[in-house]
Design goal:
The complex is a heterodimer of chains A (295) and B (610).
Chain A: E1 2-11, E2 14-24, E3 29-33, H1 40-47, E4 55-60, E5 63-64, H2 69-72, E6 75-78, H3 90-100, H4 106-111, H5 113-116, H6 129-142, E7 147-151, H7 159-176, E8 179-183, H8 187-193, E9 196-201, E10 204-210, H9 211-216, E11 218-224, E12 234-241, E13 244-250, H10 253-261, E14 267-272, H11 275-284
Chain B: H1 10-19, H2 21-43, H3 50-80, H4 87-95, H5 100-132, H6 138-165, H7 171-197, H8 207-211, H9 214-219, E1 224-232, E2 237-246, H10 248-271, H11 287-311, H12 319-342, H13 353-370, E3 386-393, H14 406-421, H15 423-433, E4 442-452, E5 457-466, H16 468-472, H17 477-485, H18 488-495, E6 506-514, E7 522-527, H19 529-545, E8 568-575, E9 581-588, H20 593-601
Antiparallel strand pairs in B: 1-2, 3-4, 4-5, 6-7, 6-8, 8-9
Classes of the chains: A alpha/beta (295), B alpha+beta (610).
């Protein structure tokens, strides 16, 4: 389990993390989302032992990560900006990682050769960005990590390779109990793979729930009624097209349905929200919404 | 497999060796060509002395331990630790399950291997080359190896410290370069600035400051090959029997300093924040230190440069223009330092307290120096504390031997007291000479150097105004100095060696001068060692002892003619048993009876037609 408690971090007086608390259950696929500059990459660098927090605690399985060789050897990290020395080949990197990570699996490396189909002798500088990312996934999967931390992981990969890589990761999640933390702006993709989601804003955790709970707790309603809305509805957003009102309401689906029944609607459709819609409407509540600017 | 030694990781080590391969291969090839190959080609087809072979190896050691190690050490450190300068690579290394201590020790050791193993290979090849020539030189080759390794240890470790401090890829070589020369250059500039308004401040640089700029010191001659000579009584000549490498204490000190720098680098790396990659200064605690040092350094260097550009030498005696230039230099330095630290051009919005503090310190320090609050200008040593004294003109008198004569010491102190006591009057007279022609008068510099009984030295440099009036006044500073300078004790001190001369010590003796009274026809006669020795013992020395030779008159050219003219000159070059060289020059007038008689016998004319 990954635990982050009240972590603060600032760079030259500019706060990047502001008392962040985050928990990733064992075996979960945790999607970390948030607007640009929310602090996602910063917390990931804490989780991988790159940064030392100004205050607060970052623990993996109850142990601090920073300068902890034992913990870090169980974590594989694929950053958004890869470090691929120009003249280094996949084989060189494999030999390097084999000397660094004690659980590096040679057989796995051989087995995955057919999946990735990358030339092992070709220098990284000759690879495209997507191919470099494939190579890093190839190596990361081979170290058989207990924790896989991914920052914008599939950026640059083609759709087939995306599916391929996610399928390999999820296979590890089911068979080995690997915990995955993934930060991405591709919410449609996260929705397909994540079971937990944390939404960050301004260096703090805005909300953190399982995906199911998150989607259950917010409902999109299309409503036609001539009566006023009943009291007690927590409406996050409303718009009107003709006579049809579209409401985003926080709360359980059945409770909202009961309340709306009081206004005798001519039409009342309750629809689940996509993760992207949840993201947009939740952040709209903290004044991070789409501005109607006329240019 | 993970290495069992927790402070060493084989994978990182191999990677560092591979990354630096182009560098150490080039280094190895360079040395193979420069030493073993050169020895084989240079000595295989000619007859040579063993000492020549040793000299070649040890000269290579001097070059290697200075320039080559200076460049190679920095290049090794830069290539091995370059990953610290980019955030991607720094984050990559920091995320690996390897402790920081392990990463540092492994990479540092890789650098040492890259530096030392090629040296050992070249040592073995050189030894083999000398063996192939039939005269194996294990000691000289070992000295080459030792000098190179110690010097490399220092320069490499120092460069590693620079890598730990710096977070920006281009800033590291700059910092390395600047810090290597900083003490020497700043000492030179501070002395130069102080000399402009601190009465008595001598020019030149401090040897101690030179020691803190190793490349300068290594090239200065104290570290390098030295001949070991023996005197052949039968032939009355010195024979160079072998060469040895001197300066081991300094090289060992460099090696020790290298280890200290390695330890410092280790602790700096442990505390380094990886997010600082890309910053000019990556260690937070050192940022204010950098700001202050850079500002002060620019105040001195740029201030000196600005002073030179806008005023040349005319500003040099004026305190306030100098101070203005320093403050302007500090402004430029402070602005540049803030730009580098904050990575923005918009630094004028921040507080300027740091800059004001630096300006205040500069004003206080140079103001105190100007007002002589440190008592530097007023200091005249107590006679009881002086062991010897050297009086010299033109230069600081490095080859003059100190004079221990009590009367000479007393006379020197009297001149010193007079010069200090009449400071304002002398400075006024010197200022009056500014802009005047050489025929109206000039400044004559002179140096007083005391060796104190506690082992210390005290040197002062003064300028005496030389004008027709001062030359005619027996109480003037130049007259007093001339009297002291031409005393027999002072003449012997600056004109004779401090050991008992032997024929073999004389390496060159030449007499040059006119052969008739017109002064138009000149000739040169070179004497052999024995002849020169007789000439020195029987003519030069007696005339020097009675003061008829070796005295100096400070004169003024009038109507294109000097008051005094010495037609014949004698040059005597000496080398002592330690290989030190000395050169003396004597101007022979008719007053030096014995010398004049000798040169006249050789056909020279000591009296010109008026």
């Amino acid at each position: 389990m990954i635990e982050v408690q009240n972590v603060t971090k600032s760079f030259d007086g500019v706060p990047a993390l502001n008392g962040l608390t985050l928990t990733v259950p064992q075996g979960a696929v945790y999607g970390l989302v948030g607007p640009n500059g929310a602090g996602k990459s910063t917390i990931i660098r804490h989780l991988t032992g790159i940064y030392r927090p100004d205050s607060g605690v970052v623990r993996v399985d109850g142990l601090p990560v920073y300068e902890n060789r034992a913990v870090k050897s169980r974590i594989a990290y694929i950053p958004d900006e890869l470090y691929c020395p120009g003249s280094t080949t996949v084989r060189d990197m494999m030999q390097f990682w084999r000397g660094i990570y004690p659980r590096f699996d040679d057989k796995r490396f051989e087995a995955l050769r057919d999946v990735f189909q990358l030339s092992e002798k070709q220098p990284f500088r000759r690879f495209s960005k997507g191919m470099q990312k494939q190579a890093m996934f190839w190596l990361a999967i081979c170290i058989k990590p207990d924790y896989l931390i991914l920052d914008e992981p599939v950026d640059g990969l083609d759709p087939v390779m995306r599916r391929q890589i996610w399928s390999l990761i999820l296979e590890d999640v089911t068979s080995c109990g690997t915990t995955v933390l993934v930060s991405s702006h591709n919410l449609r993709e996260l929705e397909d793979v994540c079971d937990h989601v944390g939404v960050m804003h301004h260096g703090a955790m805005l909300l953190e729930r399982s995906l199911e709970e998150l989607q259950d707790n917010i409902v999109k309603v299309q409503l036609v009624t001539e009566n006023p809305l009943p009291e007690g509805l927590n409406v996050l957003h409303s718009s009107m097209t003709g006579r049809i009102q579209t409401l985003i309401i926080r709360g359980r689906q059945h409770e909202i349905a009961d309340l709306l029944a009081q206004c005798h609607p001519m039409l009342c459709d309750l629809l689940p929200l996509s993760l992207e819609e949840v993201f947009i409407y939740e952040l709209g509540g903290v004044h991070y919404d789409i501005k109607n600017i006329v240019l | 497999m993970i290495s069992r030694i927790s402070c060493f990781n084989r994978a990182i080590f191999r990677r560092s060796l591979r990354r630096t391969a182009p560098l150490w291969v080039v280094y190895l090839i360079f040395w193979v060509i420069a030493l073993p190959l050169q020895l084989l080609i240079g000595f295989s087809r000619v007859r040579y002395e063993v000492s020549d072979l040793q000299s070649a190896i040890l000269t290579a050691a001097q070059m290697g331990s200075s320039f080559v190690c200076f460049l190679y050490g920095a290049a090794c450190a830069w290539l091995i630790f370059y990953w610290l300068f980019r955030s991607r690579s720094a984050y990559f290394y920091a995320s690996l399950p390897v402790r920081r201590e392990t990463v540092f020790v492994t990479d540092y050791c890789a650098g040492l291997v890259v530096g030392l193993v090629p040296n050992v290979a070249v040592f073995l090849l050189s030894l083999g080359a000398t063996a192939m020539l039939g005269t194996p030189q294990p000691l000289a080759c070992l000295q080459w190896l030792g000098a190179n390794c110690l010097s490399f240890l220092f320069f490499y470790s120092f460069a590693v410290v620079c890598c730990m401090v710096i977070g920006q890829i281009a800033a590291m070589p700059l910092l390395y370069l600047v810090l290597n020369f900083a003490v020497y250059v700043l000492d030179y500039i501070v002395r130069g600035l102080l000399r402009t308004f601190v009465y008595g401040m001598p020019d030149g640089t401090d040897r101690l400051a030179m020691r803190f700029s190793p490349l300068v010191f290594l090239l200065d001659g104290d570290v390098g090959p030295k001949a070991v000579s023996v005197y052949d009584n039968a032939q009355s000549v010195y024979h160079t029997v072998s060469y040895g490498f001197t300066g081991w204490s300094y090289l060992l000190a460099l090696g020790g300093a290298g280890l200290l720098f390695a330890a410092a680098a280790f602790f700096l790396y442990r505390g380094r924040e990886m997010e600082r990659s890309g910053d000019v200064i990556a260690v937070r605690a050192l940022r204010p230190i950098f700001l202050y040092f850079f500002t002060v350094g620019c105040a001195l260097v740029l201030g000196d440069g600005i002073m030179y550009l806008i005023g040349g030498q005319t500003l040099t005696a004026n305190f306030f223009p100098v101070l203005f230039c320093l403050i302007l230099g500090a402004f430029l330095g402070y602005t540049a330092a803030q730009m580098m630290l904050q990575k923005t051009m918009r630094v004028f919005t921040h507080g300027w307290w740091d800059y004001l503090v630096v300006c205040l310190c500069l004003i206080l320090f140079f103001g105190a120096a100007r007002l002589d609050l440190f008592g530097y200008s007023r200091r005249v040593p107590d006679e009881s504390k002086v062991a010897s004294v050297t009086v010299s003109a033109y230069t600081s008198g490095t080859q003059d031997r100190p004079c221990t004569d009590a009367d000479a010491i007393r006379d020197t102190l009297a001149l010193h007291s007079y010069t200090v006591g009449h400071q304002l009057e002398i400075e006024r007279a010197l200022r009056a000479l500014d802009g005047s022609s050489y025929e109206d008068g000039y400044r004559q510099d002179f140096y007083l150097t005391y060796t104190l009984k506690d082992g210390g030295t005290l040197t002062r440099k003064y300028s005496a105004p030389v004008t027709p009036e001062t030359l005619g006044d027996p109480e003037s500073l130049i007259s007093r100095f001339t009297a002291l300078y031409n005393s027999p004790a002072a003449i012997l001190a600056r004109s004779t060696p401090d050991w008992e001369l032997r024929p073999a010590d004389i390496t060159y003796c030449s007499i040059n001068g006119p052969t008739d009274e017109t002064g138009v026809n000149f000739d040169t006669v070179n004497l052999g060692s024995s002849e020169a020795y007789d000439f020195y013992v029987n003519c030069l020395l007696p005339d020097l002892q009675n003061g008829s030779l070796g005295s100096t008159s400070f004169t003024i050219y009038q109507d294109g003619k000097a008051e005094t003219w010495y037609p014949v000159s004698v040059t005597l070059d000496l080398t002592d048993a330690f290989g030190r060289t000395f050169s003396y020059s004597y101007n022979v007038s008719a007053a030096a009876e014995k010398t004049a008689a000798y040169v006249e016998k050789l056909g020279f004319c000591t009296k010109l037609a008026q």
